[in-house]
Write a structure and sequence with these properties.
Length: 275
């Protein structure tokens, strides 16, 4: 529910879904802070010129040794930050057995660091602040972006798929641990987009299309504008107590989340490990 969001930090917002999400929240009158890497500085500067009041930070999430300092700096400048949206991600296409890239190990580490390790560390670093505000009666939220590929892995992305599956799992664990504190008013939300037309896979889209039999037979992406409209529509579909839904999945992403809840979650509850 967007009305419970006032000041939002969106990580990975120099393009694609992150940028479009930031622009929509800005249009709703929210205070928005966005981040991107050094090579994205011109895009971030342009966004700040176009969107009065938008703040941006240059933050490379793969630099893990500076992560806590970045978090501390943001909280110092925005002490009433109530929402963190961890959206940063990269995607590599390769085959482990046939023509693997010469820098396979380095590429895999970079992808896992960006997509899984850094988001977990970011969430852990902001969690005490968000929980503290929630104890004071401020509604707080943390969104983490997984993917439909967290639930439906494909052979094109041997590192991307497991990294997003890890995010989906971490969201559930973070939520369970937060709920165990007894504090109300803090939401942990897993966002699972489908295949969306963004620059994420632009450099290898022809290859993945070819592996599916060509562009005519390949799965086609949802337009970015359609995805953003559907995401914000689902954001407003709150639970009975007025809080944001635990999962926001569009298209195939929503189907994956639903299948997990109907299957694995019920089995997990039956084991007695969760309520």
């Amino acid at each position: 529910m967007s009305s419970r969001i006032n000041t939002i930090l969106i990580l990975g917002a120099a393009g694609g879904i992150g940028e479009a999400t930031a622009r929509r929240f800005h249009s709703l009158g929210k205070q928005v802070i966005v981040t991107g890497r050094q090579q994205d500085s011109e895009k971030l500067e342009q966004a700040a010129r176009e969107l009065p009041g938008l703040h941006y930070r240059i933050w490379d999430l793969t630099q893990l040794d500076t992560l806590q300092a970045e978090v501390d700096g943001i909280l110092r400048d925005f002490p009433q930050l109530d929402t963190v949206f961890v959206n940063a991600g990269i995607q590599h296409h390769y085959d482990i057995f046939q023509n693997p890239p010469p820098d396979l190990a380095q590429q895999a580490v970079q992808e896992l660091t960006t997509n899984l390790t850094a988001p977990i560390l970011v969430a852990q670093a902001f969690a005490p602040h968000l929980l503290s505000l929630a104890k004071q009666g401020v509604k707080t939220n943390i969104f983490l972006t997984s993917s439909s590929l967290a639930y439906f892995p494909v052979p094109f992305y041997p590192t991307y798929c497991p990294s997003k599956a890890g995010i989906a799992s971490f969201c559930k664990i973070l939520r369970w641990q937060m709920e165990a504190t007894g504090v109300k008013g803090m939401n942990v939300v897993e966002v699972a987009p489908p295949y969306v037309d963004t620059p994420l896979n632009a450099h290898h889209r022809d290859q993945t299309d070819a592996l599916q039999g060509g562009p005519e037979k390949a799965v086609q992406p949802m337009t970015l504008s359609e995805y953003i409209d559907k995401f914000f529509q689902l954001l407003e579909e709150t639970k009975q107590d007025g809080s944001i839904a635990h999962e926001i999945g569009v298209g195939f992403g929503g189907q994956g989340q639903k299948a997990w809840k109907q299957g694995y979650e019920s089995l997990l509850k039956g084991s007695g490990m969760t309520d």
